[in-house]
Specification:
Layout (H helix, E strand, L loop, with lengths): L1 E3 L6 H4 L12 E3 L2 E3 L6 E5 L6 E6 L3 H17 L7 H17 L1 H12 L3 H22 L6 E2 L5 E9 L2 E5 L5 H14 L3 E5 L6 H12 L7 E3 L4 H10 L5 E5 L2 H10 L6 E5 L5 E4 L5 H13 L11 E5 H16 L2 E3 L14 H16 L3 E4 L17 E4 L6 H4 L6 E7 L2 H8 L4 E2 L1 E5 L3 H10 L4 E4 L14 E2 L2 E2 L4 H6 L2 E9 L14
Parallel strand pairs: 1-15, 8-9, 8-11, 9-10, 11-12, 13-14, 13-20, 14-18, 17-18, 20-21
Antiparallel strand pairs: 2-3, 4-5, 6-7, 7-24, 12-23, 16-17, 19-22
The structure holds NADPH dihydro-nicotinamide-adenine-dinucleotide phosphate.
NADPH dihydro-nicotinamide-adenine-dinucleotide phosphate binds next to helix 8 and helix 9.
């Protein structure tokens, strides 16, 4: 493995355009920058070297209540929902342009705060701008339907905003996850209260500076950084929030679903996965090896759709695994600011310990560690680095095969025929993603149609499109983000019936005479 280190770089320069109150990065509520009620703050750390990078306001339940009150007022009385779709769209196009204009800043903020390499955060910033652009365009497109009901009625539907949306996102794609929530919700005329991960709020604060500069109506977008157990729970359980949209772990998703029963709010859940990457012996060898690496080691495996189970045909297996291990050992791991870095650190010391505990469990369970498994030392010792890790000799009941690790750990499973490949691929409580590599296009289609997963790829892994629906089967979630599905998830459907023959119905006799 190669190690990449940091060029000279200062966090104060990267964060220079973020607002401060008394040295603290504030939250954004009701169109104002504020410190937390009671003044609580949280220190943020660089995952690549453990150094403090900034201090940010830590919202309390009182702050969430203030944000909900502002959002409620903005929705019930404010101009956003009532604004012409074309005017909303125009503002959202300007958000996209502003992200593009500050692309390097967004990229550097997420690399500093999350650790992922610049080459990944550059893509995230480009995707975020395009996501706003996509939904700005969608805002003015037709959304209703007309129905040929019996005369004399004419029936049609319109889509209306749901109202106040609580949105809770994780740390693995800080800017992009916030964008996937805000862009469709705002395009459809909703108002939002977004809770970033307590670990990675900085690019969301940078995004809020754009909303602020563009003078979005106060209360339309509120950003409340703080812990999930208090801030997130307050949003999910509030009687005044109309929808909760969540991306994160399946266990948290379950508790959010329970909290949302308070007022039966609408709910979207994008949860975890243990996705199979099925490689047949007739696949293009180097392409399949390349995407097997990319599927699990992109973003250090901290990707909900990661191809964390390699399901490979027995006749190919030894040659494939040998090449895979050779390439995994050559991945350049290190500081995300080094342009040569291919894989960055784990998000936090705590999460690194969780990943290490899974690696130890795998060894105890009798799986064969082919490479990695260790913490990286030397110039990377102060960061949260783990070497790319591959296990072979697994069996279906091992915890490393069944549970989401959310780190750079791949497990290998082997099959003898197509039916067994499908059975192994579907042997999971999750159903987020999956891929098939083969030179036989008919087989590719047969297998992909049998996968119980919401996002699938043939002869590739990971490409994600603003235009196409994203979400999972089984315990990987409820609903879909992105595409028209993502827009619809932020709307109520209203049926409107028009009587074209305005005359009494005559159902009850008129006995006046
Ligand atoms: P968590 O579920 O721990 O956290 C996600 C978000 O939920 C964070 O903002 C967190 O706050 C908040 N949260 C935590 N507890 C509660 C609660 N009781 N009520 C309300 N909100 C709460 O996940 P991670 O941050 O660890 O992210 C990793 C997980 O996310 C993985 O399982 C991964 O698969 C999944 N994920 C799924 C994606 C998808 O599209 N399906 C995309 C990305 C990640 P806090 O700031 O305190 O942590």
């Amino acid at each position: 493995m190669q190690i990449a280190t940091r060029p000279a770089n200062s966090s104060s320069e990267i964060l220079a355009h973020l607002p401060r109150i008394g040295g603290v990065i504030p939250m954004y509520v009701d169109g104002e920058w504020r410190l937390a009620a009671g003044g609580a703050t949280r220190e943020l750390y660089d995952p690549a070297n453990g150094q403090p990078i900034a201090s940010i306001a830590e919202a309390t339940e009182a702050d969430v209540e203030a944000a909900i009150a502002a959002a409620r007022k903005a929705f019930d009385e404010g101009p956003w929902a009532a604004m012409n779709a074309a005017d909303r769209a125009a503002l959202l196009f300007r958000v996209a342009d502003a992200i593009d204009a500050r692309r390097d800043e967004f990229s550097r903020i997420d690399t500093l705060n999350n650790g992922k390499p610049l080459r990944e955060t550059q893509y995230d910033a480009i995707d975020a701008a395009n996501c706003f652009r996509y939904y700005a365009g969608l805002a003015t497109k037709p959304h209703g339907q007309t129905f040929d009901v019996p005369a004399p009625s004419q029936t049609f539907t319109v889509r209306e905003p749901i109202g106040v949306c609580g949105q809770i996102v994780p740390w693995n794609y800080p800017l992009l996850m916030a964008t996937w929530k805000l862009a469709p919700a705002l395009a459809a005329g909703n108002v939002c209260i977004l809770k970033p991960s307590e670990l990675t709020p900085l690019s969301t604060i940078a995004l809020a500076t754009i909303f602020d500069e563009l003078e979005f109506p106060p209360g339309t977008i509120n950003v409340v950084p703080g812990p999930g157990a208090t801030v997130g729970h307050a949003l999910a359980s509030s009687m005044l929030v109309d929808k909760i949209a969540f991306t994160g772990g399946t266990k948290t998703g379950r508790s959010i679903m329970q909290a949302a029963t308070s007022n039966l709010k609408k709910i979207s859940l994008e949860l975890g996965g243990k996705s199979p990457n099925v490689v047949f012996a007739d696949a293009d060898f180097e392409t399949a090896v390349d995407y097997a690496l990319f599927g699990i080691f992109a973003n250090a495996g901290q990707v909900c759709s990661a191809g964390s189970r390699l399901v490979v045909e027995r006749s190919l297996r030894d040659r494939f695994v040998e090449r895979l291990v050779e390439r995994a050992q050559n991945i350049r791991v290190g500081d995300g600011f080094d342009p040569q870095t291919e894989m960055g650190p784990i998000i936090s010391p705590l999460h690194r310990e969780r990943v290490e505990a899974y690696i130890a469990t795998g060894v105890e369970e009798g799986a064969k560690l082919l490479c990695g498994g260790e913490r990286l030392g030397g110039p990377l010792a102060a960061g949260n680095f783990i070497a790319p890790t591959i296990f072979d000799g697994t069996s279906p009941n091992m915890r490393i095969v069944k549970e989401e690790i959310f780190g750079p750990v791949l497990v290998i499973q082997t099959f003898d025929d197509e039916a067994e490949a499908i059975a192994i691929a579907n042997d999971t409580v999750y159903g987020l993603a999956g891929a098939v590599f083969t030179g036989d296009i008919a087989k590719a289609h047969r297998v992909i149609r049998k996968l119980r997963a919401g996002i699938t790829w043939i002869n590739t892994y990971h490409p994600t499109y603003n235009e196409a629906p994203w979400g999972g089967y089984k315990q990987s979630g409820i609903g879909r983000e992105l595409g028209t599905y993502g827009y619809d998830a932020y709307t109520e459907v209203k049926q409107i019936n028009v009587n074209l023959d305005v005359a009494p119905s005559g159902w009850f006799a008129d006995r006046r005479v």
